[in-house]
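Practice problem: ZCHC4 protein
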Amino acid sequence: GPALLFVKTSQGKEEGRRFYACSACRDRKDCNFFQWEDEKVSETRLAAREEYNRNHQPTFTHRQNVERYKNFVLLPLSKRRFCQECQQLLLPAEWEKHSSHRFLCDISTAQLKSPSQFLYPLENKKTNAQYLFADRSCQFLLNLLIDLGFRRVLSVGTPRLHEMIQSKASQEEDFRVRSLLLDIDFRYSQFYTEDEFCHYNMFNHYFFGGEAAHETCRKFLYEDNGEKVIMVTDPPFGGLVEALASSFKKLMAMWKETGKEGQGNKEMPMFWIFPYFFESRILDLFPSFSMMDYQVDYDNHALYKHGKTGRRQSPVRIFTNLTPRMIVLPVEEGYRFCTICQRYVSSGNQHCEICNSCTSKDGRRWKHCVLCKKCVKPSWFHCNNCNCCALPNHSCEKTDSCCFVCGKAGHKRSACPSLSRS
Ligand code: SAH
Ligand code: ZN
Ligand code: ZN
Ligand code: ZN
Ligand code: ZN
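Answer key — structure tokens:
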């Protein structure tokens, strides 16, 4: 889909030079598309680009993959193979071609319903950054959605949630929830029909399947028989918040357009799952949102730290435009209801009398600084040089440039401690 327009700024200079680059791949190694905004592109180069794109299409189209799947499920267990190198379901006639590759054999129907369990997570940090929900968190999200009365889930970059919904729907007769997965990971087209999965780029709101895919999404968002829709998204954390927000607003607009007049000023309900240090950036773009204290856990996520309780501490939270008090967090996991804030908070999150709110972001008890006039992390102290609270070992001079990710001074986005993964 379309590239994004960026600007190269050099320090001290007001205006930078603008250029187009790939919206989805933040690593030039994954996609080296680069073009100055004012650059003239020759016919030859255009042709070469188109040629390159033609040669880099997936082996099969979504439609072909759906046909292949139909044939695959007809095979006896002993003939159901998945090539781990090509990440592809194989039909017997293709075994030969993959003979030097590693296979998974005897793929059961249950396995086919949980592809995220055997597709390897695309961990490539800057592009796909596939971090899958731990079962506990996925179950929590689904139960929450059901308790809130939602019957349709637009799963944007949440394959595991989608898969949990799909597999329950096929197994439990009275399970009424449906899901549509929008994701850039085309491997999923092998397991889901065109009504269940759209190949989609959430950084530029691009549907690879064109108008037909648009229409699938539109239909899904149309709330007939009062079936309430919610969108759940868990984008890669290295992604540009502004680009994501712009796409999500377009999805919200799609929902609004499909609605009857009754919708008035309402927004499509949404859960945006993202680290807590993006709070101010998200709230700037979505003023109706607030951040919940629930810590979303992942299977393959190295962002875990072991807190003093031995429970892993995840920095990932749910941002939502639903009324906070509706989001009931599990008491068994240590969450409680604050009657003043009218929302569920972490057990360690103390209500601060001066701020008049439960101020902790990371689940630990924060302390109030009278000079900063706000609560700060327990490990911080007030620095008179910087005129704000900081870690005891911070260096005072490095305050000129701020990190793109967490907004703090002293390091660049690439070195942001909030994003470091082992
Ligand atoms: N926790 C989720 C997965 C989140 S990982 C779950 O368990 O279901 C981020 C997801 O976003 C991955 O599925 C990845 O394929 C998808 N993704 C990454 N870049 C994307 C893009 N540009 N457009 C759409 N989806 C993208
Ligand atoms: Zn292969
Ligand atoms: Zn409170
Ligand atoms: Zn306070
Ligand atoms: Zn202070």
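Discussion: The chain is about 20% helix and 20% strand. Students who identified this feature from the tokens alone can consider the problem solved.
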